[in-house]
Amino acid sequence: MDNDHRPEITRAVAAFALTTKWEDIPDEVVAIAIDHILDTYGVMLSGVNEDTARIVREVFTGGGGGALVVGTSQRSDAITAALVNGVAGHALDYDDTQLSTSVEGVYGLLTHPSVPVLSAVSSVAEERGLSGAALVASYVVGVEVACRVADAIAPRHYQAGFHSTGTIGAIGAAAGVAHLLGLDETRMRMALGIAASMSSGLRENFGTMTKPLHSGRAGQSGVSAALLAERGFTASQEILEAPRGFFSAAGGGFRAEKVLGQLGKPFFLLDPGVSIKPYPSGSLSHPAQDLILDFVISNDLHPDEVKRVEVGTNSNVLNALIHHRPTTGLQGKFSMEYCMATAVLRRRAGLAEFTDAGVNDPDIQAFIPRVDVVVDPRLEAMGYQHVRSRVRVETVDGNIFEGEAEWAQGYPTKPLSADQLAGKFVDCARESLGDEHAWAAIEGIRKLPLAAQAGDIVALLNPSREA
Predict the structure, then answer these.
(1) CA-CA distance, 265 to 203, in Å (whole number)?
(2) What is the pLDDT of residue 465?
(3) Same domain as 271, residue 153
(4) What's the pLDDT score for residue 1?
(5) Are 456 and 448 in contact (CB under 8 A)?
(6) What does the mean pLDDT of the chain come to?
(7) DSSP 99
(8) Residues 239, 240, 241, 245: is their CA dihedral positive or negative?
(9) Does 136 reside within a domain?
(10) Are residues 273 and 292 in the same domain?
């Protein structure tokens, strides 16, 4: 495609980030954004005590600064805080997941948009003394950009091994921070160009500490790119659409119409939406987890009564849930077999279940071979934007329980209630803050748009701060 006819996607993204103001964001979108910000701060708190996050803090923090390392009393510069908070937010794979708008798009294989963006804009808003409304608006802009870019890139990007939360998350984070800093269009385009060259993340690292590092690096790269651009650092101004740019190099193609004319029309948070996870595991397992938990609890099934569990789904689900005989908590998050086993044996799938000890429980390991996961030709033919799963439970006395589900609780069509969302936050925050402090943090975060200083609200995530 020659330069005269190349779609100007980078320009469109920069113009959107430049022109979107707080008053342009509908109240409904702000309300959804606050739910996701609450959820995302919560998952940062849940991950802060994981070895993954601890090691990153030990290596990278120590110099002090104006941005809080969430769940601790440490402070760091904005670039480092974005890194360590981003790692903590993805450490337990409990963060939100964007939906797809097209048949070729693969739900669950696009982005976890909130952690990279929020880790970036929150740290900069704190450091610069900006308002809560400014933080929320920049979060909305960054998530919009990340979701539209992920929606547009050819599915090969993810299928061939890129982790889009790490790659595209950096672009969304850069857009959010560039908006927060009020960069002009040229410098916004420079920020996008810098971030695209800093984006990284390979799916072979799923089930290891490096997967959450992708998310932290995305937030860090977004902050770095915007700060460099603010000072006049240069990059390509057409990084997304250029022949040697992001879409071509990382995906082998793109659909321009998924971005042009779509940014904020409506906002992606509103339609098709971003789901909030009910379980701390790979989102593609969630419909099946809803089904198996319903079967077990409604019919009072006990493990010794279950002869076999079969899960039928599409091939892209299995392309992500790659650990069939997990031996660590991280691998268990990407194991449909383990998710079924813990539901049958424990009737729950919370934070305590996705640990090394939980996965290596001898009773769990003995049950896992009773779970078969197969590609169902009928579900495969529905297209990969669907994550419909079929679960069939056969008991030793010949009874059959079978059902299908496309969406799990937490999806935009089946949202968590305010009480459920608050309950998840408290569960995530309990170890770091304690229950009373966690409830005070919820109240503060829900008032974030009213805060003259976003840092006053973020400070509630410091366990040393009185709630």
Answers:
(1) 31
(2) 74
(3) yes
(4) 44
(5) no
(6) 94
(7) -
(8) positive
(9) yes
(10) no
pLDDT of residue 373: 96
Largest CA distance in the chain: 72
Whole-angstrom Cα distance, residue 298 to residue 401?
11
d(CA 86, CA 377): 38
217 vs 183: CA distance, rounded Å: 22
CA distance 303 to 376: 25
CB 403 within 8 A of CB 291: yes
Give tens-digit pLDDT for 82-128.
999 999 999 998 999 998 887 666 665 689 999 999 999 999 999 99
DSSP annotation string for 122-157: HHHHHHHT--HHHHHHHHHHHHHHHHHHHHHB-THH
Same domain, 251 and 309: no
* 25 DSSP 8-state letter: S
Return the CATH number at 237.
Answer: 1.10.4100.10
Whether residues 181 and 316 share a domain: the answer is no
- Residue-number span of the structural domain to which 125 is assigned: 3-278+426-461
Q: What are the DSSP calls for 298-362, one per residue?
A: HTT--GGGEEEEEEEE-HHHHHH---SS--SHHHHTT-HHHHHHHHHHHS--SGGGSSHHHHT-H
Joined tokens for residue 70? 């969430």
Q: pLDDT, tens digit, for every residue of 267-300? A: 999 999 999 999 998 888 999 999 999 999 999 9
Q: How many domains does the chain have?
A: 2
CA 174 to chain centre: 16
Regions in the chain scoring below 70 on pLDDT: 1-5, 103-109, 384-386, 466-467
**180 is a domain residue:** yes
8-state DSSP, 272: I
131 and 15 within one domain: yes
Same domain, 261 and 312: no
Residues 94 and 155 in one domain: yes
Same-domain status, 169 and 261: yes
**Residue 76: how many CB atoms within 10 A of its CB?**
25
Report the distance separating Cα 276 and Cα 395, nearest Å: 32
